[in-house]
Amino acid sequence: MLTKFGPRLGRFTSSFFTAALLASASSVVAAKECWLDLYDQADYQGSHVRVKGPAELPSLKSLNGEDWSNRIESLIVGPDAEVYAFKQENFEDTPQGPVYHENELQAWGEKDIASAQDLKISFGPGTKQHHLGDLNFHRNINSLKVQCRR
């Protein structure tokens, strides 16, 4: 009786093992696609560093042995990564220093009030930002989070 079920169990176990191995291999592949490329010049030029995710960098003062604080001008996000960039260290997103008063700024004719207050920004998978000045984050990033989607 045991020999009758033995081959079936063996095939089931083998199929299960193969499926588990493939699932494990695909998660390794996905992890390879979770990264962030940083450049110190516009249009992906100049010095470059890759941050492999997942990663939380409360400071960029010693990223790959160099100070990348207030240095980033362009970036590319890997296909399985989500990135959160902060103007302040330690992922701070509350204003420090003078408070921006929306009504007063409008009275003075300021049109881009929101960008004066933005202290963090996010980038989705596959994002290519050729110049962070377009988003008011030009050379103004001091901490980063890279999260992996898979």
Automatic annotation (TrEMBL):
Organism: Methylocaldum szegediense
SUPFAM superfamilies, sorted: gamma-Crystallin-like
Keywords: Signal
Source domain of life: Bacteria
Name by which UniProt lists this protein: Beta/gamma crystallin
Matching Pfam families: Crystall_3
Signal peptide boundaries: 1-30
Lineage per the UniProt record: Bacteria, Pseudomonadati, Pseudomonadota, Gammaproteobacteria, Methylococcales
Domain Calcium-dependent cell adhesion molecule N-terminal: 33-96
